[in-house]
Design goal:
155 residues; alpha+beta; Histidine-containing Protein, Chain: A; 5 helices; elongated
Length: 155
């Protein structure tokens, strides 16, 4: 008995995508407008006085957390109180949020350590970045640096 060959043909029929009907678009717009109106009614009218009060509250909070200007003044006063550090040209520079940077040249490592310790104590809650350089150490050329051709070679 001969076998009959049956052939199964499968066809992929794409699923119809629901059309975006104008009714859904209108409903979405109406829902967004209603939500916006409701939020506006709950928060009240935005006036200059309300903005000034809100921004004033933010300024007070920032000031209480330790503004960079206050920190710089405290560090400057503490450095000026030390007779050895008073004559040095040290800069206190804001360095991002909650940080100040101490820059300048000092004659020795001892004065660098003292200036950093005094500034860190005065800055207390603020992060201090020590960028002080020591004369005679940080201004010397590295031995690996290429020297100009006309510079005398050390023996």
């Amino acid at each position: 008995m001969p076998r009959s060959a049956t052939r199964v043909v499968t066809r992929v029929v794409p699923t119809p995508v629901p059309a975006r009907s104008p009714a859904w678009i209108v409903a979405g717009f109406a829902l967004g407008a209603t939500a916006g109106w409701l939020i506006g009614e709950l928060t009240g009218r935005v006036t200059r006085e309300r903005l000034r009060d809100t921004l004033g509250d933010l300024r007070v909070r920032r000031h209480a957390a330790g503004a960079p200007v206050d920190t710089r003044q405290r560090v400057r006063a503490a450095l000026d109180a030390d007779p050895d550090l008073r004559s040095l040209d040290l800069q206190i520079v804001p360095a991002g949020r909650g940080a100040v940077e101490l820059r300048g040249w000092v004659p020795s490592r001892t004065l660098r350590a003292r200036a950093t310790r005094i500034a860190a104590t005065a800055a207390s809650a603020t992060r201090l970045i020590d960028a002080l350089l020591v004369r005679g150490e940080d201004d010397r050329p590295l031995e690996d640096e290429p020297r100009p051709a006309d510079a005398p070679q050390s023996a």
